[in-house]
Amino acid sequence: MNQNKKVSRRIMIVSAGLVFSMAITPIQASAAVSADVLQTAGVASILEASLSAEEYLAIAQQAQGALWGYTNLGIANVESGNLNVREQPSTDSKLVGKLPKNAACEIITAENGWAHIKSGEVEGYVNVEFLLTGPEAKLTADNLVRTVATSNADALNIRAQATLDSEVVTQISKGVELEFLEDQGEWIKVSIDGEEAFISSEYVVVEEKLDTAITMTELLYGQGVSDVRVDLVEYAKQFLGNPYVWGGTSLTNGADCSGFVLSVFKKYGITLSHSSRAQANEGTKISTSELKPGDLVFYGNGSGTINHVAIYIGGGQVIHASSPKTGIKISSYNYRTPVKAVRVIND
Q1: What's the whole-model pTM score?
Q2: In the chain, what are the helix, strand and coil shares in percent, each to the nearest 5?
Q3: Is 116 annotated as catalytic?
Q4: Catalytic residue status for 274
């Protein structure tokens, strides 16, 4: 039989280890493929009624692989918190990472209610009940993808204006991602914790990305830490991915940087002001080499004026309400240059 004959055929579509079979004509294949794969990938213009079903499937597979680097995309579908990633497909198995709400993963296989996934530096198993897959995952991801500018140089200057004579707002280290706002040729306009700044386009890579899993190393708080510090840090992590709202203090519905800190510490009987500048003077100043989980790290502009605060969680990481685009997130404590560190938990 001629494999390229333009007639109705049965197409087998494999997604997340599940096989779907349906008999469709090439024209029907065109409509189906373009609806959930090809148009998203920007290749719908090559569709022709004369293509065979096999050719349409090949196009679909090629387009699918172009979607943000994922060939079999999964999106964490949890109401709040994180989806546990385990070493083996069992609830008794060791945790190897956490997949935050709306984070993306590559689905390697799926069997018996478990998906073998890889996301960022994490590889393991998650419950398929909490994953969006197929066209639903692609449509959801289209609204979640963000454009970032990633530093490819050490100690990279971030400036207040698009000129080398402008004030240096802060410095960022290699690999740090900033929210992309606009390409201005020699300069890229970015947002750093919600404030506009500029970075030389020569030293960044601009790309579209989806959030990925967090390794257990990133979530660790270290050894020899008091129970209250451990508890406070674990409490703060529960709100990872929740929204940033200017002036807000709600850990679930939205908080700004100081509002997030204020509300976390309030649970432990510690009263702080709703201002990062004020909070910087409400504890004991320490060096960054003395940081323990639960200490506060402050950031500022080029003149040293404090405009942002984060909670140190150990392992060189902080958790903070960063911006309306990213919400509450975990970053390296020196993702930008700290200007002050303060201890408000006395133990």
Answers
A1: 0.61
A2: 25, 40, 35
A3: no
A4: no
